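# nightly structure sweep
# worker-07 picked up a monomer target from the shared queue
# config: single-sequence mode, recycle default, output format = structure tokens
# input follows
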Amino acid sequence: MRASLLALVSLVSLSALTGVAAADDQFHPVPGAPGLELRVVAYGRGVHGEMTVELHNRNGAEATFVASGLYFLPDDPSGDPPQRLAMVGGIRAGSEDAPVDGVAVAAGATRKVRFDVFCIDENRHAPPLDQAFTLAAQRLPARVTREIVAQTKHVFSGVELRPTAEQESMVQSLVWEARRQVRTRLLGDRR
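# output follows
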């Protein structure tokens, strides 16, 4: 009985750790959104998954956060960095889980939101479970963002709240196809 209880506690502890990556715990300026800062809180559910972030508005007036074109760099000093992740699809905020294109952040306030992220590096290895990510200092080039949206819009038109596993797989393939279509250097590219 005691061994069974210990095994159960170990399994619960391990399952709590899987699928949630570390965060760098720093606020970073949101590119193209003066006064808005973003901090990665958690990333989970595998190569394509959900990123949870906190937004802080340092402005004296309400600001709108738009995540389109944001991407995240892995904190990896090893020289063999894993995949970078890009925001694809809508933002889920608060109790309203339906994806939206933008969310308001009150002056001086901090707000937690979630969105789906997908790998933009077909040729890199998957991030380990404890991988930390940092917001890139610039957004994806507009033509990359447009191509990703064009490639994935038919899949997202069928998503009500969260993509299914099949939809996630389709979107991931389409994101890689968009990156093959529009070749450009991004922050974090290997020299």
